[in-house]
């Protein structure tokens, strides 16, 4: 019995010794996208600054940055000039390194308005991250000529007000299905 326990312990220890053989010795470890491209924002009334702190050895693609307002109106965003770079993913394209700050002018934003920011970047070592999407909550901003414009409810909110209570329907259908016999 003691010999079997000794053999089992020896077998377990020997397999853990060889586990390191299957690691690639020169393999680089990539950081998560939130660390490679640290995103932050700051709003002061009509002025919003979107900032990316880009880690050394990583870069953002200029043409992959998209800003989409929801329940808000913004001025056209002018992306600054980037540095030309060629890689196997997008060929020759403009990129940003180190730090990127985008000023965005908010013309009008209702309560609960957001800005969806999508961006994509890669590492110099040859790894490309999938597109990242961040949602920026906006403070309410009144347009300069808001006194002359009537306030209207967006169409999406009007449609949701007319929908029946869907959770109740889902519960009733679920109960109905639960008591239906399975006939093949």
UniProtKB/TrEMBL annotation:
Its EC number is 1.8.1.8. Residues 1-19 form the signal peptide. It is an enzyme of class 1 (oxidoreductase). Transmembrane segments: none annotated. GO terms for molecular function: protein-disulfide reductase [NAD(P)H] activity. Pfam families: DsbD_N (PF11412). One of its GO terms (biological process) is cell redox homeostasis. Residues 29-138 form the Thiol:disulfide interchange protein DsbD N-terminal domain. The keyword Nucleus does not apply. Keywords: Oxidoreductase, Signal. This is Protein-disulfide reductase DsbD. It comes from Escherichia coli.
């Amino acid at each position: 019995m003691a010999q079997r326990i000794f053999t089992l312990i020896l077998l377990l220890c020997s397999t853990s010794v060889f586990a390191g053989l299957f690691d690639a010795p020169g393999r680089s470890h990539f950081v998560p996208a939130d660390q490679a491209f640290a995103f932050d924002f700051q709003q002061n009334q009509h002025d919003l600054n979107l900032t990316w702190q880009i880690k050394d050895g990583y870069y953002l693609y200029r043409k992959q940055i998209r800003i989409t307002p929801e329940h808000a109106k913004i001025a056209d965003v002018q992306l600054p000039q980037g540095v030309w770079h060629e890689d196997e993913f997008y060929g020759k394209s403009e990129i940003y390194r180190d730090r990127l700050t985008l000023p965005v002018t908010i013309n009008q934003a209702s309560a609960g308005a957001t800005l969806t920011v999508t961006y994509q970047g890669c590492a110099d070592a040859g790894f490309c991250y999938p597109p990242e999407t961040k949602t920026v909550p906006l403070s309410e901003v009144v347009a300069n000529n808001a006194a002359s414009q009537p306030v209207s409810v967006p169409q999406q909110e009007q449609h949701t007000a007319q929908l029946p209570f869907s959770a109740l329907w889902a519960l009733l259908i679920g109960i109905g299905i639960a008591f239906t016999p399975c006939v093949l």
